[in-house]
Amino acid sequence: MASSLFTKILLGPRSIHTSSSFFTHHPPPILSSFIATKRLFSIRAVPTSTAQNTRSTCWSPCMASSIVSRRATYSTRSAPTNEPVVSVDWLYDNLKEPDIKVVDASWYMPDEQRNPIQEYQVAHIPGALFFDVDGIADRTTNLPHMLPSEEAFAAAVSALGIQNKDDLVVYDGKGLFSAARVWWMFRVFGHDRIWVLDGGLPRWRASGYDVESSASSDAILKASAASEAIEKVYQGQAVGPITFETKFQPQLVWTLEQVTKNIEEKSHQHVDARGKPRFDGIAPEPRKGIRSGHVPGSKCIPFSQMLDGSQSLLPADELKKRFDQEGISLENPVVTSCGTGVTACILALGLHRLGKTDVPVYDGSWTEWGAHPDTPVDTTAQAE
Questions:
Q1: Top-confidence residue, 77 or 100
Q2: Which percentage of the chain shows pLDDT scores above 70?
Q3: Cα atoms in the 13 Å half-sphere on the side-chain side of 284
Q4: What CATH architecture is 250-371?
Q5: What is the per-residue DSSP string for 60-106?
Q6: Of residues 179, 54, 170, 45, the one with CA closest to residue 116
Q7: Which of 23, 270, 336, 376 has the most CB atoms less than 10 A away?
Q8: DSSP secondary structure string for all residues of 169-231
Q9: What DSSP designation does 126 have?
Q10: Identical topology for domains 85-235 and 250-371
Q11: How far is 351 from 121, CA to CA, in rounded Å?
Q12: Stretch 218-231: mean pLDDT
């Protein structure tokens, strides 16, 4: 059913060489068609405007020649072993390598009114797979996009066509946001050959590199199959062949119980990636029924402080300054959290650049902690 339905509505991939007005007056049919099939994905279909993100990416002769001249400076397949990110130039030079797979992991806050699958269909890096952050998640909890079980993750990733031998480059539509979450997820399940694309899709397009418009039937069907695989695992049904084997790394993920224990033991420095007003308890949480404030003893470094104006990861010396300013010692263990476990991964990414590769993320983060009736909550007023 799903296969035949998607085959009927899909358009073939093509590179964007048109002005943004084309999409304003002639939206791709798949955008409206997708609404009717949204139940195949675990994504809310929300109103979105993609015209501002579909500017022409045609190369000028100058741009093309500069890209060619750069090729000599990038060694194919020499991904950095000590860096969590790769540049758009590196990816361009290695895009056609058979064991490199590119993953679009775009996800947006509900109030942004952006639909990641629709934006993927309008413009994505050629050949990129789509990773549904909300869909490839634990189906036994009401908390948003919690880590799935090992079996469920393996089934979903296998359905996407990813294998253990693959090198993965993950990106998102904001520059550097939800891609860090998927980077962390793969590492939790034992796959270290993964990098975040520094600056994401905006940097890729600003550099003059082509994007594809509309998704191939293969890409959409794989995304659908991944969602269906997750459902089958949690329903106890058999799934297709498994091409990706997991090796769970428990040291990279924390639970509510571990955070509670840490308040007394202080084995880890707890850093919260939310904005300061939410951390201080003077701004309401965006989700209903959740108290404002922070975990006692935690400190606040908003995730935006890890990034420059182009949404790329800051150099190591600048990152270190951010942690030094909040009294976070890189010599001691750190655990990170945020609202729902997404931007906490950006802090983990920054700490990885600084050599701390074992930073756990509190998966439930403030959505779990602030809604729990028995967890202690501090605010700025209390501290004063």
A1: 100
A2: 78
A3: 4
A4: 3-Layer(aba) Sandwich (3.40)
A5: PHHHHHHHHHHGGGS-TT---SS-SEE-HHHHHHHTT-TTEEEEE--
A6: 45
A7: 336
A8: EEE-SSSSSTHHHHHHHHHHTT---EEEETTHHHHHHHTT---EES--HHHHHHHHHHHHHHH
A9: T
A10: yes
A11: 33
A12: 91
Give the span between the Cα atoms of 105 and 107, in whole angstroms.
6
Q: pTM value?
A: 0.81
Dihedral angle sign, alpha carbons of residues 82, 87, 93, 95: positive
**Selection from 146, 142, 374, 381 nearest residue 260 by Cα:** 374
**Nearest-angstrom CA–CA distance, 299 and 276:** 10
**pLDDT digits over 298-328, tens only?**
999 999 999 999 999 999 999 999 999 999 9
Minimal CA–CA distance to 189: which of 244, 146, 248? 248
268-299 pLDDT, tens digit per residue, is: 999 999 999 999 999 888 888 899 999 999 99
pLDDT for 39: 29
25-42 per-position pLDDT tens digit = 333 333 333 333 332 333
Supply the pLDDT for residue 289. Answer: 82
- Catalytic residue at 300? no
**Arithmetic mean of pLDDT over the chain:** 82
pLDDT, position 111: 79
Which residue type sits at 196?
V
How is residue 243 written in tokens? 């091409």
Write the DSSP assignment of 29-60 as a string of letters. HHHHHHHHTGGGTT--------GGG----PPP
For residues 305 and 369, the answer to whether their CB atoms sit within 8 Å is no
DSSP strand pairing (269-272 vs 299-300): parallel
Nearest to 367 by CA among 384, 333, 342, 346: 342
Select which of 62, 300, 338, 345 is catalytic: 338
Residue percentage of the chain with pLDDT more than 90: 70
Q: Domain residues of the chain, as ranges?
A: 85-235, 250-371
Distance of alpha carbon 325 from alpha carbon 276, whole angstroms: 14
Contact 74, 90 (CB under 8 A): yes
SS3 assignment, position 379: coil
- The yes or no reply on domain 85-235 and CATH 2.130.10.10 is no
